[in-house]
Specification:
six-stranded antiparallel β-sheet, 127 residues, globular, 33% strand, alpha+beta, Peptidase C39-like domain-containing protein, Cathepsin B, Chain A, 8 strands
Length: 127
């Protein structure tokens, strides 16, 4: 059974579009036996703590994160990236929609990443 059967993704008119976090977490936990959790207050401190604890973070960001220096970013989500490293100064993430190699796997200053972040996401513990 795939994630869609859990209600984890919607592209139906009149419904929220894209990944629906809680059904996705249920799917990941049930089918793949990872520990996943919805995070609605994803601050930079929380992001660093999750990474330090060995988790990956799927973070909701504005899609213009792949061109961080071109426009002032709106503070909204709608685009997901996989954060693989985070510290007080920088964040490294994988953006499958990156338009250049340096945008696919990118490292940004934490302050700049925060400007694109919607402050929500999903944490994944793989062991």
């Amino acid at each position: 059974m795939g994630a869609r059967a859990y209600g984890a993704y919607s592209d139906e008119p009149g419904q929220p579009e894209g990944l629906i976090y809680q059904p996705f977490v249920n799917y990941v936990n049930d089918v793949h036996h990872f520990y996943a959790e919805v995070v609605t207050q994803l601050t930079s401190a929380r992001l660093c703590a999750e990474i330090e604890d060995g988790r990956l973070v799927i973070a909701s960001v504005n899609s213009e994160i792949r061109r961080p220096h071109l426009i002032p970013p709106p503070r909204s989500g709608g685009h997901l990236v996989l954060v693989t490293a985070a510290g007080a100064e920088t964040v490294t993430f994988h953006d499958p929609a990156g338009h250049r190699p340096e945008a696919i796997v990118a490292t940004l200053p934490m302050m700049l990443f925060d400007r694109f972040s919607a402050g929500r996401g999903v944490t994944l513990k793989l062991d």
